Queue: 2 jobs
Job 1
Amino acid sequence: MLEIKNLHKRFGDKEVLKGVDLIVPERGVYGFVGVNGAGKTTTMKIVLGLLKADEGEVKVNGIPIAYGNTETNKMIGYLPDVPEYYGYMNCMEYLKFSGEICGMDATDCKRRSEELLEMVGLADEKHKIRGFSRGMKQRLGIAQALLHRPKLLICDEPTSALDPVGRKDILDVITTTAENQDTTVIFSTHILSDVEHICTEMALLNNGKICYSGSIKELKEMHRQQGYIIELENETIENPNGTETEMRQEVQKLLEKGIRFKKAELMEPSLEKVFMEVVGR
Amino acid sequence: MKKMMAFIKKEWMELKRGGKLVVSFIVFMLFAVLDAGIAKLTPVLFDLMADELADQGLNIIQTDVTAAQCWDQFNGNLLVLFIVFVIMFAGILVNEYQKGTLVLIVTKGMPRKGIYFAKLIMIVAVWTVNYAMMTALTWFYGDYYWDNSIMHHMFGAIMGIWLFGVMLCCLIMFFSTIVKGMSGVLLCIGGFAFTCSIIGFVPGVDKYLPTTLSDMMTVMRGGADISIPAIIICIVICVASTIGGNILIEKKVTL
Ligand SMILES: Nc1ncnc2c1ncn2[C@@H]1O[C@H](COP(=O)(O)OP(=O)(O)OP(=O)(O)O)[C@@H](O)[C@H]1O
Ligand SMILES: [Mg+2]
């Protein structure tokens, strides 16, 4: 769906992207993870033709993008980190205007807008956008991004500014989108639990390069730590290098001896830990 | 073209809901009323103050007020009107990139040129309609109380002032592609006017300056002809700034 090859970008003397290679497969939600300032937004803006790359090649659905060109953007829906609208319009008016800019048919646009507003939970919101909360703006952002039925939805940190409830809502909407709308979603974030929840695959951007891309399971597998912990009544047995078989044997022994224990646990790496490890902090 | 129409509709909504349409209309109409009103009231004021002034040894020679006084006021007030107009519309483009509202629109396929022209058309239209109403009202007062036929080159003079206003609109758009904020646009327009007035000190150069079109007092009183070179230069500035602005907006990095 999206192919990025050897992408370079510098701002002044600061090299932000130092050869990013990324292939996002069709379907599913793809996580794009990196620390603050890693260059996630920059990469996305290049894909959208809002920024000019210094070097490299980007293809959307096989079609190369060009700076300022909007051809490939017809296939892309974009939700920026802080979406800004015209405050004096209401949702419907804004979507109508967006539809006209996309060149959509008026009746089709109206039907689609109603459907999307229903989906994001803004159907009954008649007020002007001026008074919207951040969460509402993000919802409207998703609606406007999906208006022209894009094949690819690019969301830049859609959940970063939201409270847990708002976050869950947005994540749900994104998951539904990926499932029902035949849309590939790329989703940048630094909140790893979000990635774990909704993404099937992910890429990790660090130091201007992609240092991992693939399935989340495999990433965890790769960084699987050895070791287990068994908690007894008033003692814990910790074996940092033990394997699963060793733990089973240990548990067996305890059972035979009739010693009670509260829990036995294999050390599962959290994405958080893996992230820290890869980023090197 | 369709996209530009959609954008013009959006601009219209912005002006309407933001109140600028009404406010600018009121301001222009106010100026027209003021032009005629001050001309009409001048003798009354003099009458009122005549005694007082006479006490101080000043003798007022009663001058007849004609349409000329009314149009003098009209010309004299134009400077303030232009300043108000520029302040009102200087932010038309820069405010959008300061807020970032264009990002979504541009990624949806709105051509930048379309944005530029939609906004330019909109301010030129606002200027034209308001100016036409103001001039028509002044004309009406001029005929109602006095007689406009004593004036000279009226059509040319009125069109000259209109052209100057159009040039201001073009310059607002052009400078908007260079600077970051509204104060930058104001500064640039101010700088342009200042440069013109500095150049104006050179004797004989007046007739080439577009700023001569902003005050037609002498022309209307029959003291001079309308300067054709100034008109040509004004048109050249309009065209050049529009071409330049379109090139620059395509190159603009942050929308
Ligand atoms: N227009 C610009 N001019 C100069 N430097 C810039 C510009 N845009 C981005 N940068 C720099 O590029 C780096 C990457 O920025 P970017 O916004 O892509 O990061 P990010 O991964 O999206 O971070 P965040 O998680 O905070 O959104 C930052 O260090 C920033 O300072
Ligand atoms: Mg960012």
Job 2
Amino acid sequence: MNKFLNNNKNKKNGWIKIVTGIVVLILFVVILNLFSYKIRSSVYYVSLPVQKIFSNAGSNTASVLSSVFNYKNLQKENKDLKNENQKLLSQMAYFYDEAEQNQAVKDILACSQEEDFNLVLADITGFDLKEDFALIDKGKDSGILENMAVVSSQKVLFGRVFKVYKNYSQVMLISNKNSILDVKILITKPSQDEAINIENDNSASVFGVVKGKGGFSVFLDLVPTDQKINNGDILTTSALEGIFPKNLLIGKIKEKEKNDLKPFQTASVQPFFDVKKTEKVFVITNYKQEK
Amino acid sequence: MWFKYLLITIAFFILALVQASFFTYFSILGAVPSFIFILFLLILFFYRKDRIFSIFTAIVAGFFLDVFSISIFASNIVSFLIISFASEKLFSNLKEIDEKFSIFHFILFFISFFIFNELFIYLVNYFLGNLSFNNLSWIFLVEIVYNLVFAIIAFYAFKKLQSKK
């Protein structure tokens, strides 16, 4: 009888311990979350100088190793780039000669023209690769706000500022699975007939949506099936969603997938951003939707 | 005594920095080694008799992972605490082979808690509405293998260290 009562008492005590433990844990989590902004800012403030050193060391080591291991690939890449460059040059010549007013050329040129953006230079100091996030060393103190566009010096879009802390910010890369942006597709290889059509019709731009896939990859979606897109077509921001300025470079179509059963075309995209080879980025601080 | 706690805090801090900056350049298909998780499990495995040290390790390791990740703050701490308590229960049930724990046991231990941790963090962020979180994908499998390689190397290093003591 006593043994039975003791067992019951032990069981009861066990449950009380578990419930108390859970309550304490929940309180602990709530308190930590209330102060998470200050905690993250403080730890980051302390660790920033060391993190920059590690980041630079990682970048340098990776580039040395990749040049050693990928010597053959580099040669091939170099050859491919030369070929591509020649193709692009001939295409440019074609555009200039045959269709000076072609909208696609205008758009490509617009990408390289200086626009009066206010830019804040920031160092990439870390990544959360699993979630396609980057950390930059500029925050509220430098005038950074949420949803500001983050680009490279060549105006390649990296993503947008997701969360701002006192002295650093988290950047959601366009490859994050929750990233969606409106894009314009610049038709770079039109046939003779199409080129004439485009010349006569300024509304020939094709629009779509670029979605993140995770793991630094993106894909093109929601392109109407009656619009013709080609492998190698360049994608730029269209500014329709109001977050990114127009004409920022995103990537090029790698392989289009057309399924007659689907109302839209999709395509895999080779993004232009390369987080492993970029140490500095710019945050556009003065872009507004009305621009 | 206190030196052990200080040392482990500094070690986790440095590992967090290395993991978030240096090793991101050595990712394989987007997977990076999680040294914090590896060290945490090694401590649970080799110092399983020291309950306070295990709990302290879970809080410190989880804290540094939370600081440098975009997941909901303290989700890693809670996950690590659960792993710490679960492993304690597991080891108490395996008392009879206490001194014979091998690499085989460690690999099983590592893979099961790695999967638990991934699922737990994902579900917490999903249900608490962290919209920035990526879905689980097959990269998860690459992560397990990538981390396991480092974990096995670290296991033998720890074992050697233990045998010297």
